[in-house]
Amino acid sequence: MLSQQRQKLILDYLKTHKSVQVQELSDILGISLSTVRRDLSDMEEIGNVRRVHGGAMLAQELPESPILLRSDKYAEEKQRIGAAAAALVKDGETIIITGGTTAETMLPYLADKTNLTVVTNALNIAWKLAQHTHISVVVLGGYLRHSEYTLLGHLTIQALQDIHVSKIFHGIYGLDAENGLSGTYIQEVQTDREIINAAEQLIVMADSSKFGRTGAVRLVPMDQVSTLITDKAAPDDELDVLREKGITVVQV
């Protein structure tokens, strides 16, 4: 059974029972405990479930948004990635920063930049930049994806027609040296592709947990990536392949 099929069965079960134990899912699906835990981790990453001691519960039963639930995962690694990303931003540039907890970590390190313009489709990014009055902020319109605080759809894409920037800083669900960048939310993919195409350089911010993970939807191939910023635990074999493809790899 494919992971997508298993995760759909898990989600259907949780919609009825609200919570479940790992052992219970192992018995129901006839799979190993490690496979259950891996599926639940993937589902938590995209905001479908919340891991609790010994099992999981449906995310809709929780008051927090999924993006907030992810904010403390790999927190130290994300902070280092954010600092390294901000170091690539030059005074006077116009850049795009997309949504997600990793991209958000670079914001405090932009405070000393001058004549900087940030374009974003993420409300959390715009909100946190509001305190830096010397940074010009352009917020793309669109349909709100509540769980991620991101704006998407044809209105977002329409706004991009008048925008061209030097760099885009983009967090990602999954990254594979051969299969490229992937996501899980089909409705968001076209918006993400258009945002990426509005920039000269695609800079991907991804902690080591994102390697080898493949979402349901392919976003862009790896040859579209200019720079990858990751942590020291990223797999060496994958990084070697990326370097061979001409991608600049920054490990922090």
Structural class: alpha/beta
Radius of gyration: 18 Å
Beta-strand percentage? 15-25%
CATH topology of the largest domain: Rossmann fold
Class of the largest domain in CATH?
Alpha Beta
Distance N to C terminus: 37 Å
Helix fraction by DSSP (H/I, runs of at least 4): 25-40%
Average predicted confidence as pLDDT:
90
Tally of domains:
2
Structure write-up:
The chain folds into two domains: 3-63, Arc Repressor Mutant, subunit A (Orthogonal Bundle), CATH 1.10.10.10; 75-251, Rossmann fold. The strands form four sheets. A seven-stranded parallel beta sheet has the order 6-5-4-9-12-14-15, with helices on both faces. Strands 1-3-2 form a three-stranded antiparallel beta sheet. The mean pLDDT is 90. It is built from ten helices and 15 strands. The chain has helices at residues 3-17, 22-29, 33-45, 66-70, 75-86, 101-104, 123-129, 154-160, 186-197, 236-244; strands at 19-21, 49-52, 55-58, 94-97, 117-120, 136-139, 143-145, 150-152, 165-171, 174-176, 180-183, 199-205, 217-220, 227-230, 248-251. The two termini are 37 Å apart. It has 252 residues and is α/β, with parallel strands linked by helices.
Question: What's this, in brief?
Answer:
With 252 residues, the protein is of the alpha/beta class.
